Amino acid sequence: MKAYVAECFGTFCLVFLGCASVIAGGYGNLLPLGGLGIAISFGVAMVAMAYAIGPVSGAHLNPAVTAGVFLSGRMPAKDVVPYMVAQITGAVIAAAALWSLARGASAVAPVSRAANGWDAAGLYPMPTAFAFEALGTFIFVIVILGVTAKKHRTPLAGVVIGLTLTAIHLCLIPVTGTSVNPARSIGPALFSGAREMNQLWLFIVAPLAGASLAGLVARTALLERT
Length: 226
What we know:
Glycerol uptake facilitator protein; mainly alpha
């Protein structure tokens, strides 16, 4: 139960801090962070949670990461669904908090600005968005499994994971707003419009597909034999 609570809290912090940088910083008038600031916000939040709750739950903070860890053989099946439920719960609470705080505030954008989507400018169609999200998640989970493997474990694992998430955000923000995390997408989408809800499926399926492939690769070929 402590692990589930930790996952809920950690995902809340990741989604709240990351998405707040979008609605109050990335598109606000008071502190225009832009894409770099948003990417750093998500990355630093990931680093903080990795060290704060990593010893308790592993700090997955992401149903896709949980799927990858399970398929790599490092997690019992009984914990998969509770982890995912806890992560989604934390993300929804974070989005609800942001929605409540942003209502009527002229200095911040609506929560829908933090939701994921594709083809906003007619440049990136759905197949491109799917490929970017799946590949981005594959890279992210491979890095996580690599730096946390028994033979590769390092005290800097949390920093490496956070920097990887930052890099992925820098690449994917123009394409999808960057998900690589179904929980991060579900939370804001619930407080957005029909477009965001209609496109939500991609930000569940693509990250899970990329993470599942990463878990299988790590288990069978790349990481566990070295």
